[in-house]
Structures are given as C-alpha cells and as structure tokens.
Amino acid sequence: VDPSGQWGLVADHNVYYRPGRTGADAGDLFLVDFQGNNQPNNEFCDDTTKCYKNLVAFRNFTNHEDNGIENNPNFVNASTADFHPQSSSPGIDEANSSATGWLETDVRGFHRHDYAGKVNGGTGTRSYDDIGPYEYDAVPGEITAVDVGYGKTTLAVSWIHQGDDGDVGTAATVDIDVNGTVRTVDALAAYNGQCEYFNVSACASYDVQLTLHEDDNGQSSQSDNYYASTFCTGNFIAECGLALLGGEESSAKRVEALVDYPLALSTPWPNPVREGGTFSYAIPRALGKVPYSMTLYDIAGRKALLVAAGSAKAGKHTLHVPFVTEGGAALSNGVYFLRLQIGGEVINRTVILAR
C-alpha cells in the first residue's frame, strides 16, 4: 500500500486479481499502489515493501482481508473503464454495508438490492450490497413509466426504463410507435429518463406504444398503449414529462410515477385572467386511459372552447387555457367555468376574464 497512508487502516471486503497468471499462479494477487506503480513481480506489498504471493499469505501475515476475495472481478470491460459487474462477478452481495462512509446507494444513486442468483456473503446492516462502485442489476429490461405530452402540432414521448446493465455486450434500443410509424433510438443508461419529439397534425388522435429491446439476450419488453389528442387551436408545445437525466432525479421521478393521486382540478392562475389561465389537474390510476374532456363554458352554459379531449393519463398535469373561441377569436370579459368530465365524474372551476 501507499507509505503515506494513515496508520490504522483495516483492509477488508475487497476483490483482488492479478491478470495474465496461469497454472498454479492463476488468480494470484495483483495490486497497483496509490502512486500508480506496479508492485514488483505483480505481488502484494505492504508499506515495508514486503510482498506476498497471494491473498492468503497477505491475510495470514497481516490479519487484513478476512473477507477479501481473490478472483477475476469480471467487470463488463475494465480496459474501457466500464466497471459494471456481470452476473459472474465475485463481488456481488459481498460488501460490508456497515463500513464507515458506506452509501445506501451506488455511485449512480441506485438502491442496493439482493441478487437472487447468489447466496449473500456480505456483512453489516445488509448482507447483499455489492463490492465496487456499481450495484449489479439483474432485472430484465422493462419500460417502467411513460408520459405522452401533447401540444397543437407536437408530441413529446418520454419514458423511464430499467434493464440488466451487467452482462458483456448489453445494449438496448427503444422502438417508439406513433400511429404505426416507428422511430428507433438508443436506450441510455438504465433508469434514466429519455424524451423524443414528434411533429404531428393538429386536432388529431394518436396511439403510442414503446418496446425496449435488449441486444445481449434478445429479450424485449412492450409498454401499454398510450393515447393523446392534440389541440385544435392555440400555440401549445408538447413538454417532456419524464425527461430527467441522472440517478437521483430519475429515482425521484420513479417514486413520483408510483403515486396515485385523487381526481382534482385547481382554480386558475392568475384569477382574474387576462389572456389565458393555467390550471393543474390530477387523474387517478383507476381513470387512466378513460375518455375525458376539458371544456370552457360561459355564464349562460354555452360551450366557448373545447380545451382538451381524449384518453386520460394518470398522474398530475398542468394545462394552459387560452380564452379564445374554437375559431381563435378573443372571448368577451365575464365569468366562465372550466369543466373536467371523466368516468361519470364532473369538476367545475370558476374563472373571471378581465382583459
């Protein structure tokens, strides 16, 4: 180890490997010290330059690494610094989760989980944490959340997927099918949100479905069907609902995707409105994909504008309502009602227009 290291360090729960050894030396220890120098003869040397042929010899002399492992770590590709473990990696479920400074998540922010393909050998509060920067993910690829945002002439299809990020050769693509037209894109790192924009026609309905393909094992996973109806008027631009990149943000979004909200429609902001108002509304899972409509009525009960209609998407949403007729003319000042109708449920909110 590095002679400048602090006294009192206890080495344990690490994986050691000396590549290129054959015969009786196969799997013997290899170490590069903290100065970046290969130790003599590829042996394990302490701060007195005493070297050990293998981990057993080092353990017997120093009382370190009682739980150390001497084996090929089987990273996906160490030569390109891809240190994701594979299913055969010896460090899976072998870490000490109570070690000082140990994190509840790996470097991506992904939670530790127990790999069913191996008996737990770790210690601490959890016996299944993995040695190394990345937690092994043996979950088959799956589209876990989808959002289809819509404007007047745009769709924004965003999604979150999880997948097996371990085995050599793992690669994935996502097919996005919009009314029979398929666009294929590379899937980014597991759990990250991605988004694709589509130019579409106004005042039209669209059926969207996603399929995740894993190249290493030929598996594929198909999402549910999602529906969207573009606006007939206004200049609305579709927004990406799940386009959050990065482990912690994506983790938060995955949690949000699991929340079931009650049916709700807010009052507008601002109120009174001048040109248009912004509403938020929530659709419970039980009413997801159920036909709905959002309609603006005047004080006499006459329909002033069909704001939105189609198959509802479960979750929280924000909607900007322009106070114009379906022909695009400005509405007169006065009292209006925005009505949300879905599955036999009706919610009205009062709006005052004062230009």
Tell me the layout of helices and strands:
Elements: E1 15-16, E2 44-45, E3 51-52, H1 55-62, E4 69-70, E5 75-77, E6 82-85, E7 142-150, E8 154-162, E9 172-178, E10 181-186, E11 193-199, E12 205-214, E13 220-222, E14 226-229, H2 247-258, E15 264-265, E16 276-283, E17 291-298, E18 303-311, E19 315-322, E20 334-342, E21 345-353
Parallel strand pairs: 1-4
Antiparallel strand pairs: 2-3, 5-6, 7-8, 8-11, 9-10, 9-12, 12-13, 12-14, 15-16, 16-19, 17-18, 17-20, 20-21
Commentary on this structure:
This protein is mostly beta strands. Helices cover 6% and strands 35% of the residues. The chain has 2 helices and 21 strands. Strands 9, 10, 12, 13 and 14 form a 5-stranded antiparallel sheet that branches. A 4-stranded antiparallel sheet has the order 18-17-20-21, with no helix packed on it. A hairpin with a 5-residue loop joins strand 2 (44-45) and strand 3. The longest helix is centred in the C-terminal third of the chain and has 12 residues, at 247-258. 29% of the residues are buried.
In short, what is this structure?
The protein has 355 residues and is mainly beta. It is built from two helices and 21 strands. Strands 9, 10, 12, 13 and 14 form a five-stranded antiparallel β-sheet that branches.
List keywords for this structure.
single chain; five-stranded antiparallel beta sheet; 355 residues; four-stranded antiparallel beta sheet; 2 helices; elongated; mainly beta; 35% strand
